C-alpha cells in the first residue's frame, strides 16, 4: 500500500508553527505553575489567591481572543492555514517566553 507524499510547499510552515506553538505552550505551562506557586504562597500568608489566578486567566483569555481575531482578519485569510498558524505562533511566542525566562531568573 502506497501513501501519498506530503505537499512540499506547506511543510516548512507546519514545522515552524509546531516549534513556535510548542515553545509557547511550554512557556505558558511554566507561567501557570508559577502562578499556582504564587497563589499557594499568598494563601499561606492569609491573602486571597483568587485575584492572582483570575488575573492570570484573564490575560490568557484576552490574548487568545486577540489571536482568534487576528486569525480571522482579512489579510490573514488569504494565507494557507499552516502559514497562518506559523505567523500566529510567531506573534504569540515572544511574550510568554520572555516572561518565563524572567520568572526563572528572578
Give a description of the structure.
This protein is mainly α. The protein has one domain (11-105). It contains 5 helices and no strands. Helix 1 (11-45) packs parallel to helix 4 (81-92) and helix 1 packs across helix 5 (94-105). It starts with 10 loop residues before the first helix and ends with a helix. The model has no long low-confidence stretch (mean pLDDT 88).
Q: Outline the low-pLDDT stretches.
A: none
Order of helices and strands: HHHHH
- Described by the principal axes of the CA atoms, the overall outline is elongated
Beta-sheet strand percentage?
under 5%
Q: How far apart are the termini? A: 55 Å
Helix fraction, binned, reads over 70%
Per-chain topology:
Elements: H1 11-45, H2 50-71, H3 74-77, H4 81-92, H5 94-105
Short summary of the structure?
Helices cover 80% and strands 0% of the residues. The protein contains five helices and no strands.
Keywords:
106 residues, mainly alpha, 80% helix
Amino acid at each position: 500500500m502506497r501513501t501519498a507524499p506530503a505537499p512540499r510547499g506547506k511543510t516548512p510552515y507546519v514545522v515552524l508553527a509546531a516549534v513556535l506553538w510548542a515553545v509557547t505552550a511550554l512557556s505558558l505551562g511554566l507561567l501557570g505553575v508559577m502562578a499556582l506557586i504564587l497563589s499557594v504562597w499568598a494563601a499561606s500568608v492569609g491573602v486571597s489567591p483568587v485575584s492572582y489566578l483570575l488575573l492570570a486567566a484573564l490575560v490568557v483569555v484576552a490574548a487568545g481572543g486577540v489571536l482568534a481575531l487576528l486569525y480571522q482578519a482579512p489579510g490573514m485569510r488569504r494565507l494557507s492555514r499552516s502559514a497562518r498558524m506559523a505567523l500566529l505562533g510567531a506573534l504569540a511566542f515572544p511574550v510568554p517566553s520572555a516572561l518565563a525566562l524572567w520568572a526563572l531568573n528572578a
